Structure formats: structure tokens, C-alpha cells
Amino acid sequence: MDWTKNYFDDFYLKYFLQTQPEDITNRQIDFIRKFFNRGSYILDAGCGTGRHSIKLGGLGFKVLGIDSSPLFIKTANNSLKEQELQDVSFLIQDLRELSFENEFDGIINMWSSFGYFDDETNFDILKRFYRALKRNGKLIIDVENRDYILKYFVRETFRDKGEFFILERRKFNPLKSVVFTHRFIVGPNIRKDYYRYIRIYTVTELINLFKAAGFSSYEVFGSYNMDKFTENSKRIIIIGLKA
Known about the structure:
- The protein is an alpha/beta fold.
- It folds into two domains: 4-146 and 201-241, Rossmann fold, CATH 3.40.50; 149-197.
- It contains eight helices and eleven strands.
- The protein has helices at 4-7, 10-17, 22-33, 51-58, 70-83, 119-132, 146-151, 203-213; strands at residues 41-45, 62-67, 88-92, 104-109, 133-144, 156-160, 165-173, 178-187, 190-199, 217-221, 235-241.
- It has a seven-stranded mixed beta sheet with strand order 3-2-1-4-5-11-10, sandwiched between helices.
- The two termini are 35 Å apart.
């Protein structure tokens, strides 16, 4: 089941992507810059509206942003026109069909954009990332930490947006390590249902996947401030090196 086709729509764009705080984006950019030299060619895999790509382009990086959503890529291109950056471009591309080889100095996959499919497909995407990197290239994947999620598991949230309500109900499948979320949008003139399935990982699982994909070494952090990873870290930020 490919839940991503209906989930990432205009509603998600307006109320989830375009409301991301600027300070979080800036912290993420500061983190990314520590691992690449200015002028490096970066693939922003799962770029959304291009918030990372455009900022990196303004800092002297060459960037290709890819996303499977035509709506998100259109929005990214509109933002790009306002910036007039020559070394940033966007492309509609499904990560499952990524076919680059030895092309990029770095790949970034930010803000829980990994784990959307079954284990075999997720691992295949990781191997495609590896092939797309040049020698000595680095991959950064940023996801939520399974240990933290389960320790503080939130089964239901309710948000009042004024014009409508957002109710989310979550279940965890321990056999597949998948969090299922049913999101309800309810208001006078709106009624929508969304379904989300995310494979959540322990840090050990991700390290083993990176090794199996071919990465020769790795680093792991628990935040964009480069804090040491612990079981109480909200995020797993893992950086793999292709030797």
C-alpha cells in the first residue's frame, strides 16, 4: 500500500510544510554545512518545498532537490525564482526509482523522510543513495528515534486550528516496527482522512543497514546541535561515508 500518494497534498503543504519554523531550518542547515565543503554537489532527497536546497544554494553549494510530489516541486521552483540561484534545481523523482551513479558529493534525507515503505524497499532506497554518491561522498539521514518514540508514545493528539480540528490517532505494530497514524481533519466545510505508515528504527538497525549498503564508516548524533546520541535522543542523525 502506497500511502504517500494521497498524504502529501495541498493541505499537507499549507499546514505542515509551509509552517516549519525558520529557526529549525537554520539549525538543520548549520548541521549539514559541517560535513561538506562549499561548492559540493548535494542531492536533497525528499526535498519537499526545497527549504534546505535553496538555503544551501545561497551558501555556495550546488544542489538538486527531488521529490515525488509535483505540487511540492512546483512550489519549490516558485520559491527558487524569487532567489535567482543558478546552482539549484528541482526534479520530480520517486526515491524508489533513483538511478544516479557516482554523481553527488553528498546526499541529505531530512526530517523523517526515510522509512515510508516495507523493509526491502527502504533498504533498496539506501543502496540507491550509496550508488549515487561519489567516492568519499556522505549520506545524512535524519529520522525519529524509535526508543524515544516508544518510551513517550503519544496515542492521540488534538489540535484546534480555528477553521477546523486535526485529530491524530496512532498505533504501533511491534512485529513490523511501524507506527500507523490516522489523521482526521474536521470542520464546517471540510472532512478529510489521511493514513500514514512509518517504519521507525533503532540506531543499531540503521547502523547495520548502512554497513550492509556498503558505507565504510558512520557517525551518529542525537540532535542538530551535534549532541551525543543517547536512548533519550528524540532524533537519530546518521552520517555514512562511501570510501
